[in-house]
Each structure stands twice: as C-alpha cells, then as structure tokens.
C-alpha cells in the first residue's frame, strides 16, 4: 500500500488542522502519496519581504506514524545594495528669493528592483 503524507501547520493533530501556510515560505505539494519503494521530492521556496533571518516549521504527517515530524525552514533575506553619490547636500549661501539646486544619484547594485520613498 502507498503511504500518504501532508505538511501541516500545527505540531499535533487537532480539530481545526490546516495545511502549511506561510507568507515567506512556499512549499509545493502539501499532500500526496508515495508508492512502495518510491520517492517524492518536496520543493520549498523562500520569498523574503524584509531583511533578516526568517524561520518557519512545517509538520510532516505520515500515515501510520503517531507523531508528526518537524521540517524546519530557515533563510536570510538581505536588503538591496543601494549607494548615493552624496550623503549631505550642502547648499551655498543664497540670497533670499533665489533658488539653489543639487542632485543626488542613486545606484542599485542589487539583482532586484529597489523601490524608494523620500520622507
């Protein structure tokens, strides 16, 4: 007989069990069967929304086992690398009513698009 498995959100069985769900870790194929002497590859994906170390735990429930097995997911999101041509915009003395202008160049050295907002 094939055994079945599913990746769950909770470590123990409870009435309102849910399959694994996380906003930064995605697991493809949360529930399936494996034939005798067969194998199955579960693919995980990390989609960071902020910098820092992120962790999650999926609980593997296998038919015939009493306890669920933890699968720990751990990854690090890094911030984009952005550089500015100046740290300080130093304006010269100006006569009242006149206008002084400066510009700052931003460079994105990252492999991803960078969004910014001046506040």
From TrEMBL:
Cellular component terms per the entry's GO annotation: axoneme
UniProt-listed Gene3D superfamilies: Immunoglobulins (2.60.40.10)
BP terms from Gene Ontology: axonemal central apparatus assembly; cilium movement
PANTHER family per the UniProt record, alphabetical: DLEC1 DELETED IN LUNG AND ESOPHAGEAL CANCER 1, HYDROCEPHALUS-INDUCING PROTEIN HOMOLOG
Protein name as annotated: Hydin-like protein
Species this chain originates from: Trepomonas sp. PC1
């Amino acid at each position: 007989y094939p055994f079945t498995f599913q990746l769950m959100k909770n470590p123990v069985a409870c009435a309102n069990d849910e399959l694994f769900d996380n906003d930064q870790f995605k697991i493809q194929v949360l529930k399936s069967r494996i034939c005798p002497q067969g194998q199955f590859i579960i693919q995980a994906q990390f989609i960071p929304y902020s910098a820092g170390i992120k962790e999650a735990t999926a609980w593997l429930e296998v038919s015939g086992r009493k306890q669920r097995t933890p699968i720990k997911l751990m990854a690090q999101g890094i911030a984009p690398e952005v550089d500015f041509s100046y740290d300080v915009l130093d304006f010269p003395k100006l006569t009242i009513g006149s206008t002084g202008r400066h510009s700052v160049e931003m460079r994105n050295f990252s492999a991803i698009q960078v969004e910014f907002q001046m506040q």
